[in-house]
Design brief:
278 residues; 51% helix; alpha/beta
Length: 278
């Protein structure tokens, strides 16, 4: 059994690492990846397929873990070559059900089996395994991966329930961080930044902790969350809401993405963002 892994970022590489530790052969395409990603993959035992064509020929199961705005074009690329017989392509990206349907249409046309997936939480480690939701007729065929760095949950129903689950979950977890960051941008612009900090400390301890402890930590992830907010906005619109909140969240993460790489406090982050806005 060969697992073809698309994506060697923080999440993908750690999942690949645990697959290898549990006796699975994992391949990926190292071309165009950063030196950091390639060195990490080699250290973790992930092998270089050398080309997308080789990757498609050799993989029994393809797992895509990349930024959501790349999911559709990646499915197009990786399904454009002759594939291994009975190959399953599992998209585990943070995409809307509409994008998931487009991916399935592409794969159906090329006679590639599709499973919809989504990852909740952070990368696996020795003490933690993220839950991975799967949906679709062939989802059960991936259940053997459970306990190998991830915990599989199979959803009964439509082919796209796993993507729907990711959208509603991330709309809360990542959307709420954008809301807090946005509130402090507005507070700074209206000269009530310190007053907001003090009021949250007095009356809303949870959001005070989100502001001071969680928002500064999202700086290096913001570039990945921009496309995700767009996908969530589309999902909200498709469900009869406006999608406006997460469209605004997308803009907030755009501002955060452009911050300098060094570690910054909440106050430093907000000062740099509002300074650029003036």
């Amino acid at each position: 059994m060969i697992i073809g892994l698309i994506g060697l970022g923080e999440m993908g590489s750690e999942i690949g690492r645990f697959f290898v530790k549990n006796g699975l052969d994992v391949i990926s395409v190292f071309n165009d990846r950063s030196k950091v990603s390639i060195n990490r993959a080699i250290e973790y035992g992930v092998k270089d397929a050398l080309s997308v064509e080789n990757f498609s020929k050799e993989s029994d199961i393809v797992i895509s873990i990349i930024p959501p705005d790349k999911a559709l074009e990646t499915a197009e690329l990786y399904s454009n070559y002759p594939i291994k017989e009975n190959q399953i392509y599992c998209d585990m990206n943070a995409i809307s059900t509409m994008t998931a349907k487009k991916i399935k249409e592409i794969l159906d046309f090329r006679k590639v089996n599709y499973v919809d997936g989504s990852i909740m939480g952070g990368p696996p480690n020795q003490n933690y395994s993220p839950r991975v939701y799967l949906s679709g007729k062939l989802a059960e065929k991936l259940h053997f991966l459970s306990g190998k760095g991830i915990e599989i949950i199979i959803l009964d129903g439509s082919d796209f329930q796993a993507s729907a689950m990711k959208m509603v979950y991330a709309s809360i977890t990542k959307g709420s961080k954008a809301l807090v960051a946005g509130a402090f941008i507005v507070a700074k612009k209206n000269n009530v930044y310190q007053e907001l900090i003090e009021e949250l400390e007095y009356s809303e301890e949870f959001f005070h902790d989100v502001a001071l402890k969680q928002v500064p930590g999202i700086k290096h992830k913001a570039y990945r969350w921009i496309g995700e907010m767009n996908e969530i906005s589309l999902t909200y619109k498709d469900s009869g809401l406006t999608g406006g909140f997460h469209s605004e969240s997308e803009k907030i993460y755009e501002l955060i993405k452009d911050l300098p790489p060094e570690k910054l406090s909440l106050k430093e982050m907000i000062e740099k963002i509002t300074g650029k806005m003036e």
